[in-house]
C-alpha cells in the first residue's frame, strides 16, 4: 500500500490469499454436514423424509445430478446469448458488437450492472438495510472493464431453457415437500460472478414480512433453488450459516465482530459441480464474497413460498412499493409454473410430468405455445411475489 491508497485497499491477489485457509476449512465443514445427494422420491412421488429432515436441520441441501449435459448446454447457451446482447454499459443502446442491445422490450429491465469486485449493498440502507456490513472490495486489475453484469431478472421470459428447468418434476416435488402442494412462486434471477470481476453480495437474510409474526417459523419466507451452470467453488459461491434459518433475525454486525472479519467463523460454502442444484432457505444468513478467483459462477435462481404466507398479505417491496397478494394475483403468477411444466414435457416427453395441484384442471389453458408466450409469459415478472 502507498500513502495515497485508502486504508481498506486490497489487491485481487491479496484477497485471494486471504480466502485460502478460510475456503479450505469451510469446504471441509460443508462436506461434513452430509446434506447432499440425488433427489430421492418415495414410490408415491414424495420427497424422501431424510432429505427433508436434513434440509430443515441445516437450512439447505445439495442435489446432485439434476441437470444432464445436454440441458446444461442449452442453459449455458441461452445465458451466453443474453449476455452477448447486453448493452455495453448501463443505459447504452448498443451491445458489444454494435447491434441494438436487448432489454427495452421488457417492462422490467433485465440487466443489472455493478462495478467489478464492488459491494453495492453492504453497509447501505438499500434493500431495507438488509445488508448491514460492507464486504472487502479488492481493486480490479488494470484491464478490468468499468462494469460487469451481476444479475439478470425475469429468467423465464428471457430464456426458454430456464422455463423448461422451472418445470423440472424432481425440483417441483422438492418445492411441494417444503412449502406444501399449493406452493407459490417468488421470482427468478440469474446471479453472475465473472472471474476477477464478480461483486460481493453482503451477508443478509432474505424476507422482510413475517419475522415478528406470532406463528413465525423456519419456513416463513420460503426458499430458493440455485442451479449451477458451472462448478460452484468455495471462492466464488454463496456461503451460508447452517441452521440460521431457525433462529430469527441474526445480528450480522455482531457475527462479523466475533469473527474479526467478514469471513464468518461457522459459515460453509455452497460447493457443487455444474448441473447440481442447492435448495436454500431464504431466512439463512448468507452472502458471497467478491470473486477474486479465476472461476466463473452462473446461478439460476427460482424461489417459492408457502401459500398461507402470501395469500391476502400486504407488504412493502424492496423498493418501497406496497403490494397485496389476493387469490387472483397468486393464480395468475402460478400459471407460469403450469407453463413451465408443459414446456418441459414437450421437450422431454419421457420424463414424468409434475402435477401442480392448484392448476391440475387448467392444463389446456396453460399449454406452452407462441400464443401463451405473448399472453402469459411476456412481462410475467410484473406479477412477481415478494414477502
Ligand atoms: O448468488 C449470490 O451470490 C447471492 C445469492 C443471494 O443472496 C440470494 O439468492 O438471496
Explained architecture:
With 387 residues, this protein is of the alpha+beta class. It is built from ten helices and 14 strands. It has helices spanning 12-32, 49-58, 69-84, 126-129, 155-158, 160-166, 169-179, 252-259, 327-347, 370-377, and strands spanning 36-38, 60-64, 111-114, 148-153, 184-193, 201-204, 223-228, 238-240, 268-269, 277-281, 286-288, 297-305, 313-316, 322-325. The strands form three sheets. The chain has an eight-stranded mixed sheet. Strand 13 and strand 14 form a beta hairpin. The structure holds 2-oxoglutaric acid.
Q: Which helices and strands appear, and what pairs or packs with what?
A:
Layout: H1 12-32, E1 36-38, H2 49-58, E2 60-64, H3 69-84, E3 111-114, H4 126-129, E4 148-153, H5 155-158, H6 160-166, H7 169-179, E5 184-193, E6 201-204, E7 223-228, E8 238-240, H8 252-259, E9 268-269, E10 277-281, E11 286-288, E12 297-305, E13 313-316, E14 322-325, H9 327-347, H10 370-377
Parallel strand pairs: 1-2
Antiparallel strand pairs: 2-10, 3-4, 4-5, 5-12, 6-11, 7-10, 7-12, 8-9, 8-11, 13-14
Helix pairs in contact: 6-9
The structure holds 2-oxoglutaric acid.
2-oxoglutaric acid binds next to strand 11 and strand 12.
Shape: globular
Biggest β-sheet description: 8 strands, mixed
Spans of at least 5 consecutive residues with low confidence: none
Radius of gyration: 20 Å
List keywords for this structure.
28% helix, 4-stranded antiparallel sheet, Jelly Rolls, 387 residues, alpha+beta, binds 2-oxoglutaric acid
Brief summary:
With 387 residues, the chain is an alpha+beta fold.
